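Morning!

As promised:
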Amino acid sequence: MNSQSSTKTIVATGLGAAVFLVLFMYVKVPSPVPETNLQIAYGVSSFFAAVFGPVAGFLVAFVGHALSDFIQYGSPWWSWVVASGVGALITGLCAKKVAPAVEEGRFNTSELITFVIWAVIANAVAWLVAAPVLDIVMYSEPASTSFLQGVTAFGLDSIVSCVIGAILLKAYASTKTGKGSLSKDI
Amino acid sequence: MKIRTFSYDQLDTFVHRLSGLSKLVCFLLLTTAIMLTYDIRIILAIMVLSYIMMMISKIRYSQIKVMLIYVFAFLAFNFILTYVFAPEYGVKIYGTRHQLFSFGGPYTVTLEQLFYQVTKFSKYLSVIPLGIIFILTTNPSEFASALNGVGISYKICTSLSLTLRYFPDVADDYNSISLAQQARGLEMSKKAKMMDRLKRIAGILIPLIMTTMDRIDIISNAMDLRGFGKHKKRTWYAKKPLKRNDYISMAVCLAVLIISLYIRFAVNHSIYYNPFQ
């Protein structure tokens, strides 16, 4: 992001976190695994990460998750809040390639593959490493439960971030006008 | 869908009069203290302190009822999960074994496991009132200035106050888009397959994200026109100056943290308090 659009990134972070918060709190789609829900919000955080970069992505997920915990439980479960942020942060590393393309109206196979690869790596780091390790270090949780929850979260959240994120990126790209989209009629 | 936001009340109590900055610092100090200990004596002391503060700040039961139900459901689930997956964790920690009775198989109930799980339960329970006090007694506009006060860049703080400001608007948008799509026959129930459900929720998300992107353009243009981000520092309209009571409360919370660390490293020599030896 260049300095010209830094205000836009700040505003996008703020509103992105608001959208994340709303979806995180109210939109629960039941998943095939009993007693667990698909968190649609992770699709939104990976969308904002891919368009506005890693820092914006981190803050969208971190602030959104922390505020949702504050409102629903009174106090955030920091290890998972940090893991959410880390996931979006790593997804945001694809922004270098994906963001300029999307702004020009392109979201084709090569951008899709880049996005999906980064999103899966990001979810793996967040839920298989960051969340369980922080659970054990910060809260002294038993390792077995933490890793079991981590594996479930990894599976579901990868699907959500890839599918929802890609759908949103595709839709957003199609509202943008590409370079050289006009041709002279002779 | 019921929209539930911070129900901040403008009251005049000791806790409300404190500046947002000192409440944030106290919250962080006390939650760190709880996070770093498994000593039930410290946890209970902080719990008593925070429930007294909750009474002083005149938080009504009706304000926190829904929150408490969520918390108890979560804690009960966590309690059972911990036992199912690690029934011998307490024995491992405390190094002794006082068996009470057995469910058969590896599932025996030991005094150590019970003590461990009760400690853990009260550990989580004692954090809740701290967060509730902070959220319900801090003016949302003051929240950003408080974060700026602990050294976070004002750009991040501005983005946070935008989140708080636009959260109800986005929730309203979501609600009307969702109703409109359902009126057009969008099936969101359990009958649809998972992939279909994901695609259909995109039918709500796409309009929501597009209106949000428009809004981002409008707000950021308005902020650019007013020269946002030109200077390195910013002042806050809602900032409260620190008074004597602010320093006293921060000192008390810091003392609690130091005492809990002292007990952990000099008295217990471990994160756990072991009454079995």
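The mean pLDDT of chain B is 84.

Hope this helps with the figure draft.
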